[in-house]
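Lab notebook, bench 4. Still working through the backlog of constructs that have no structural model yet. Next entry is a single chain of 75 residues. Request: give me the structure tokens for it.
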Amino acid sequence: MTSKTLVVLEPTMRESVERIARENEISISGVCRDLIKEALDIYEDKYWSAVAAQREEGFNWRTKGLSHNKVWGKK
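Model written out:
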């Protein structure tokens, strides 16, 4: 299910969105949707990178790490 959301853009931002829409032959709302989706993907990637970095700091590779052979069963 989709829902509508009103977004207020500065004039220069609106012009950029209109240009992208014309170049790609899609609607302005489609451009906004795609840009928001891409921004959320980037935000999510940054979040999970931070989580991974935090976990990695406290990880003891010598006692808890697995060798290539243990994981894949070959050298």
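Notes after review: Residues 5 and 29 are 10 Å apart (CA to CA). The two ends are 50 Å apart (CA to CA). Flag for follow-up if needed.
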